[in-house]
Amino acid sequence: MSQSFEITTESAKAAPPAIVSLMHVGGMTPADWVTILTLLYLVLQIGLLVPRYIDRFRRYWEGRRDES
């Protein structure tokens, strides 16, 4: 194997523990990061779903108004 491939492989193996260590030194535990990422995920999901539900609600009310 080439030396650059070995360096890349070993770097990829060492990256996750190094990232966790850096986050912990930065003052946040992995549990804190999981909480933040979960909240970010929820905000993104809500941001994607709310416009869809508003559109459906408007179409529903427009359909009801046309029936009257």
From TrEMBL:
Transmembrane residue ranges: 33-54
Keywords: Membrane, Transmembrane, Transmembrane helix
Highest taxon above the source species: Bacteria
Protein name (Swiss-Prot/TrEMBL): Phage holin T7 family, holin superfamily II
Species for this entry: Billgrantia pellis
Lineage: Bacteria, Pseudomonadati, Pseudomonadota, Gammaproteobacteria, Oceanospirillales
